[in-house]
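Cont'd.
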Amino acid sequence: MGNPDVILEMRNISKSFPGVQALKDVSLTVRSGKVLALMGENGAGKSTLMKILQGIYKPDQGEIVLKGRRVEIDSPKDALRLGISMIHQELSPVLEMTVAENIFLGREPHYRYTGIVNRKKLRRDTLALFQDIGIEMNPNKKLSQLSVAEMQLVEIVKAISYNSDIIIMDEPTSAITDREVEKLFQIIKRLTDRGKAIIYISHKMDEIFRICDEIVVLRDGQFIDAKPIGELDQNKLISLMVGRELNNVFPKETAGIGETILEVENLGLDGKFRGVSFRLRRGEILGLAGLMGAGRTEVAETIFGIHHATEGEIRIKGKPVRIKSCKDAIDNGIALVSEDRKLKGLNLKASVQNNITLSSLLKYSVLRQIVNPRLERTVVEQQIEALNIKTPSRKQIVNFLSGGNQQKVVIGKWLLCEPDVLILDEPTRGIDVGAKYEIYKMMNLLAKEGKAILMISSEMPELLGMSDRVIVLHEGEVTGEFLREEFDQEKIMACAAGFKKGEIVA
Amino acid sequence: MKAEARASWDVNAIKSFALKYWIYIAFAVLFVILSVASPSFLTVDNMLNVLRQVSINGIIAVGMTFVIITGGIDLSVGSILALSGVIACSLAHPDTYPVFVAVGAGLLVGLLCGVINGTIIAYGKVAPFIVTLGMLTIARGATLVFTGGRPVINLSDAYNNIGGGYIQGIPVPIYVLIFVILIGMFLLNFTRFGRHVYAVGGNELAARVSGLNPARVKIAVYAISGLLSGLAGIILSSRVMAGSPVAGEGYELDAIAAVVIGGSSLAGGVGKIGGTVIGALIIGFMNNGLDLLNVSSYYQQIVKGLIIIAAVLLDRKSVQ
């Protein structure tokens, strides 16, 4: 204490959610006029920590000390009042309102007695803000007319407009171009010169080393290290971020690898990814690594026909195929267990049975239409048993099952289509350890049966534990491919951060 | 202690049973009350009379059930009913065409209107409310243009017998209603198409990812709704022996009411033909009972509104 620079301390913060210890005894010190980088893999606890600072979550333990005074933050409104504002990674603009209206949303300058918005002052205040931080934009333009990058700038201006002492920036550059990144860095410089503190979250190493003064690393919800930027280089930082031992929760068995089933060549989707090529063989589990937004899900969804490729070719068993819909993909022996099962995987209002047989109903139908109830029942009960789905009956509404069992229902649905290629997008997200283990076992079994598996995962241990091969995507391009014997967390992480595999110094 | 626990369990079981099947209970209660209150209620003649009246709304409501399960709505049923009715009647004058031509034309017009609704909704991605609201006006306008605003009269006996005739002492429309209900139940419960209807209404994106073609399912349900509206139009016009250009106004509300009282969710994904049938019967018997008790039809409207709201409230409870 007694250091006048220290503006905020988070002390011994712990937070758990049902089944997960999200944060354990994490401490953080933020200084005026400095940029603090908060680093860690997906799921390391950065977001949870920042949500606590925002008053969105309440910590189970620990305290927050702001300017030497202990504070309770109960809501984002509280946080703003205390001088903490945040630029969110996901934008939430009101598209039909103007730039100025968005910035001053909920606190528009108004006439005292009528409550009518004072448009002149609104415009004046906005222009003053723009001038203050050195950007040019028409405050009367509607947000819907702006590019994503411009919207991001509006969001940044909005966060600054609260005149907060602490500004949290969560991946502020994810949607903006290099030129605007420069602008942002100038803004950050101006802010810190005025004594503001910035908490900066980014996966982009070059940015971190350019603008940050100090780095805090979290891993698995725990505080790992805090160092001035001068004491670290990129390699050291990466090893701090990923440096955990792989424990034996992955029952990996190598299956005999057979002929190539799926070939993807130079596949591209405008604005999402380009030039993606790989082969997938029978019995193989291919891991697709990368950071959020690297384009992994888009690659999977393009192969499955949810998006339509703008370039490149997909071949199944050597034959080029045109996949225009999900049905085409299914007919070609591809199945996709999507990342968001509630959005794309399940009809939560329907029963286990109706979900499981939805894609393969034709096989249990007479005259293409009339479902054979006895046959369907047998198949569903077999599947419930084989996948160990815990449900009171096949008629149970899926909404009432646990996440792990819901995931098994989705997997069960796809297995009934007897696919050759199974794409699993974050197959164990949000499910408990037991169900995870069962899903890993099942992947082994399927590989042994000769199915080819493409697995997208943000969990490094899962990727390394289960894959035979890993390819890494960064901003829509493949930056590296690793065979199982070459697996190295730090190298894969470096590729995910944008280095080419060849460029990494061992 | 043990007995107490058992008793409380029983109360809960009864409560959940009552919440789940309240619609049938409500129907039974309504039936008993009306039987006691009015001596002319529970007579064969009155029952057949009510059922014949219910058949129009019941047939439309079966189609509406399909639409509502997909998460849509069809406001155009009343106008389609009128258009189909007048076109069928225009081909049903004595000594012109055989009766099946008139019936076929009426059904075809209904089907066509439904296909147009469904196609615009599925491929134009316009909200069902808007598209069918447009069709409500268009079909009504077309009916008025076609008839010049005058009813189409002078129909053959064969045609008039469809709505007005009896088989074994039971009005023909009741047979038609039962046939439609059975077909509807079969489609919804025993076919792939039925599963697809629920899947599209429950989660359209997941349905598409599961290899379904939601657009086709949507066109099909509006086609069914249009076809059944056409059928209802034929029955109504033949019963009153005239194709009235203003027939069916407001019928969409009774059909939607029957579906909603029957437990379907306007959000889609949930619903049963059986519920809809009970919903239509509740509305029919209530109107009839209140008529017999000399309650003004103004009050009937209030009661119907209260039932609709109570239905949805109770439904919400049973889900929790």
